[in-house]
Amino acid sequence: MIEVKNLTKRYGNFTAVRDINFEVEKGEILGFLGPNAAGKTTTMRMLATLLDPTSGEAYVCGHSIYNRPREIRRLVGYMPDFFGVYDDMKVIEYLEFFAAAYRIKGPARQKRCNEMLEIVDLDFKRNAYANTLSRGQTQRLGLARVLLHDPQVLLLDEPLS
Hints:
This protein is α+β, with helices and mostly antiparallel strands. It is about 35% helix and about 25% strand.
């Protein structure tokens, strides 16, 4: 599912990630542990094709992060530590907006959004404004959003924060 070979990211003289190597097979769970500025988020952003590495290579579901970023984005659900919600959107509208962006159409969109609300135990907040949710509820909404398109790989940055 994920193969990383000598992946490196530098910002000027600062090396955020240095020559890391690892593999994650289907069904495996990998967690990054380390202090702030250890390169955990940087690594996830490179795997999600949101940040270009300085050197090295990575494959997600057999696709190179250099050559197939669009395909990788279809296969990955990436949830950053902090993400914005729209002040004027209800929880269900937020999910429907992203489901539309994932090209989930018609009755399938409504069904999928309802399923995700149940999975993350937010159905009781479906008509609440997204910006009124607690931090934990916002994290669960973010998880529902990244699960909408049934990704093969989940990249969750600080999912327990």
